[in-house]
Batch of 2 targets.
Target 1
Amino acid sequence: MRVKPRFKDVASVRSGLKKENYLADDGIAGVVYLADRLGKPVLIEGPAGTGKTQLAKSVADMTGARLIRLQCYEGLDESKALYEWNYKKQLLRIQADKTSDSWSEVHDDIFSEEFLLTRPLLEAITSEEPVVLLIDEVDRVEVETEALLLEILSEYQVSIPELGTITAKQIPLVFLTSNNTRELSEALKRRCLYLHVDYPDLEREKEIVLNKVPDISENLADQIARIVRSIRQLDLKKAPSVSETLDWARTLMLLGIETIDEKEAKETLHILLKYQTDIAKAAKELSVTK
Amino acid sequence: MPVLDLMSGFIVELRSAGLPVSLTENLDAMEAVKVIPIEDRDAFKYALGATLVKNNAHWRVFETIFEVYFSLRGPEYEINAEGKPDDFWREMQEQADQVKGQGEGKGSGGGMDSLTPEEIAAMLMRALMSGDQAMMRALAKQSVQRFAGMEPGRPVGGTYYLYRTLRNLDLDNMLQKLMDANREMSKQELSSLEERLEKDEFESRIEQFKQEVESEIRRRLVADRGAEAMAKTLRKPLPEDVEFMHASRDEMQSLKKALYPLTRKLAARLARKRRHGRKGPLDFRNTVRHSLSYGGVPADPKFRYPRPAKPELMVVADISGSVAAFARFTLMFVYAIQHQFSKVRSFVFIDGIDEVTKYFKATEDIGEAINKVNTEADVVWVDGHSDYGHAFEVFFERYGKDINSKTTILLLGDARNNYHAAQSWVVKEMRKRARHVYWLNPEPKSYWNTGDSIVGEYGAHTDGVFECRNLRQLEGFVENLA
């Protein structure tokens, strides 16, 4: 079942992601490379808005694979994550020819793949073409539901009592994201490679801004990255994420601002920060002379 | 040493530092090492990190151990006192000569070694000013060699050397100097925003330099004592094992971050308890709807579940001197809880007791709230020494009527009562009225009921007394509530 590796080395992952407009640092590229080589899922943790989901999308684009996404939420169960029997169709089948078939024939028939509705997880492993499976915000499901994922994550197979075990035709690249609202179970963590995506450092953030915002000047991008870094150092309720940095950069571009001065910074702070107390604090801090 | 041997020593060290490395993770790491060459130090580090460290709070501990075991090996790290005259070294000597003044102009005679501390400081300032990384690294090496006064076999920790090095460079005043120099250099007046940004930039460069110095010291210590011994001396407790009573400022910060998820968990636990167990009456609509899947046979009856009542919480915390460090943590805890529960009332006491709910409600800023509690709350009755008995009595008298069957009471303190009257009947009364009464004690269990501690006397009337010295224990308490 071992397929040939997708990536040559870490550097090729990095350059490949860059082509998809995703700037990876050494850690990110290294773990993606490793995930492919070891055939293991990647658990991505980190603050909101640092491009965790985007990483999975970009990897899918880069490898030309189909992205299958399972959005987790409280109350997710196996009929929505793994598979479900198509009751209505089974019922029709039984009623369609009541007379001809014997009981055992009908029984074998209605529990066949024809009557199986595949959900994202099962779909990911039965798919013929290459697949990237994204299990988004896995920390939202209850601890008990996490167990659903374990079989597929370690063995790449799904056991269906009536049908037997379905094993993967190809090993998909699997990404799980978590916003760290709760501690995930040891069992889940053990099966995954762990990647913590934090806010990017100054240089990388600047590069991201330059990359994502068309026509922005180097000077402005530098200034933006530096102001955002300063703001992140404050003790805030919610620090600005990368996506908010980008929004801010776009806004400044629309307003036709070339260099940010104090007044403009303060007037547009609400794009970067979402809490009134945070905005007040940042505005105060930024104008302090020392 | 072959990689495999290094790896097993490394993993043993990770485990002794408290990181939970399982056997499968160990095997994964070995597998990963096969595909990532050890020469690529960064990739190697991330590969090990991804397979062995599954909690971001453990990353720093991991990094230190990794540095000791792997980063400091290899030819480029050979210690050699004369210093190899590579290109960079020469360049540095030239710079050194410039600083010394052109008058002497010979450049030989050790160059760097003949510099006075002031001159090195001046070079450092120039490097920090321009953000010249290579120069900073070289200066870090040089200053450790010159100022740390390291002697082989001397049983002194790295912090001492760090202190000596930094003191000689006068790094404390470096920021101010840099700012002044920067102001002079720029033509026009800097706006306050620009100035602030410059300051942050310099701060991060100085921080970077400090780290270079630190790792240089570690490198030399490892060379002197060997990786195993070094890793042992560098061992620091994981964030969840830091004792509240002895936490440093930095550690307090990281504790604060870890608190929010914990309180959310606490809220969930207390609420969940009510949802389980009792089933409500038949939900007719829901049953009929589901019966469609079975061809109209109501095979899967559905019931209404009672909506979980919002839990109410009362936190009563000792903030006297004997538990001062714990009290700071307690207040942070209370503050964090406040945002999770619809009804939390918090009380603090020393020998008098006062309700402080309003201080926490009024402000978003935790520092301000704690400050207000410390200055405004009326908690001293006679002499400002803990008197649990009196505090409890007053509590019961004033607020006892608000305790009902939905209330959970958390008592936080060491129960060191200064030999006052215990008044433990109050706790007994509380438990009769409330749903639960728990006591969290920041002292090690072996100290309980020694001296003036009477936690046993109170504890007999509660639903449980829990040792709560670090985050792991607090988490355990929350975990076991259900």
Target 2
Amino acid sequence: MISSELLKGSLKTIVLKLLEENGRMYGYEITRKVEEITRGKIMLTYGALYPVLHKLESEGVLQVESENFNNRIRIYYSLTPKGHSLVKEKVRELAEFISTLGIILDPKQGLIYE
Amino acid sequence: MSDLSTTHVDLIIREVSRHQITFSHLFDDLIDHICCDVEDEMQNGLPFEKAYSRVKEKIGFRGLNKIQEETLYAVDTKYRKMKNTMKITGIAGTVLLGFAALSKIMHWPLAGILLVTGAFLLVAFFMPSSMMVLWKESRSKKSLFLFVSAFLAGTLFIVGVMFKVQHWPGSGLIISLAILSGALLFLPAMLMDKIRNEEDGRKKPLYYLGFLAVFLYLAFLWQKIMHWQYFGTLAYIFSILLFLVVIPLYVYQEWKNEKSVDEKFIFIVVALVAILLPSSLISLNLQQNYNDGFFTLADKSRETLEFQKKVNAALFTSYGDSVAYAEMVKVQEGTSRVIQKMEAIKSRLVDLSGGTKGASRTGASMNYGMLLNPFDPVSTQTLLSPGSETRSELDSLLTSYLNEMKNLTGSQVIDPGSGIMALLPDKPDGRDEGTLITSIHALNLAETAVLQVESNGFKCLARNHMKSE
């Protein structure tokens, strides 16, 4: 399992990317999806997910719809037009970060000796 | 997916409601999430109760507030600023006050400045920002009164203590207001809040008892600060006893309900023991030393008085063959009238305050340690305060006595009149006038001063006659 420390900075991007691919999703669905795709390597907790969702909503990146579902209210999150343009930027940023990390961790150039 | 029934959803909603999740649609988010989790567990064949308790264990329901705090912190810039202000000024203010106390004890310089700065930080920044933070977190109109009263009482208390330590005028009034608002506004609001949010009926009586204990403790604190003696240490002992009943019962209830004990709980228990025990021991011990100081002082002043009586008696005898003897007798008669009056007042003070434990009353043999209520203020207020009947009698007696002495001896040397009056209880700036033991001490000093007038009178008369011969 990947530590929450490492996950912290990329959580926004993960959420945005998922919403871009799946349209609208509710909180639990997002955690299950992430778990499923990563085969349990990334587990989002309540405490990590909702602050990020609300933050993105307040920035106008996400919009919410509420629906009655089985005696309770379910909140669906989806991307706003602003969100759609942000996703590409964020994904590019993260990909760049990963490739940069790759350079550092490359045994030929960097920190790991064999 | 097996769906939850309405009853089950309602149960979850009810339990989560208790954590006062009020921010935006976070409450709905969490309810749906928890329900999904439970449904998921039930999918694996668990009954609702098992599934639900497993989910509760996984999330830790105490952490629900934490999620709201983190969400607020991420979204609301104002909240973030408030929270940071609260943390920084809270720590800085407390540390400054700590150093101020240390400086005060060690008599280092800057204690006053440290104290005022620390108190200012707490009152001007910490209190308002923590109120805002709490308000943002709960958003409940019902809690508004609780916050405002806490803010009021806390602010007044810090300001009052600062005034008291700095010896600025008005500290008594401010602390009184703080304790009154604490006892009459904050405590009841707190009690109502606790009772409203507590579903466990067995805990409610404990809250009432705890309320009573704190109430009595505040009453005791108030009388201590105001130097009153209405109920002695009774309220204190009673409140400690109540704490001794309430805390273990509360601990027991908590223990039964929670499977695990969290660190906050342990901290509270340790802190209570660490604060209550030494503070009660120190305050009782200090009280003893403080009382003993007064008794020693009064004993000394009485010894001086008795010594002066002997000196005067010897002086009077030695002038037995003087030409001025007849006038000296008049001096002695006038003096003993004043002395008798003052002794009578002392004796009435003792009686009015409730008397002594043993048989002895006033006079040379009196043991001040035997007084039943050595710090009773009422007797002084009735008999010796300016404006009271006895005091007016004493004042006019003193004035006529001093005039008589002046006429007899024709001398200004013996007129420490204002000096004697100044020894008696006064009411400068409306401060309290004194207690039984301080009044007795004052009367001892005043009597000694009167005896000095007498001895001066003897000497003047003798000298006058030597000159005229």
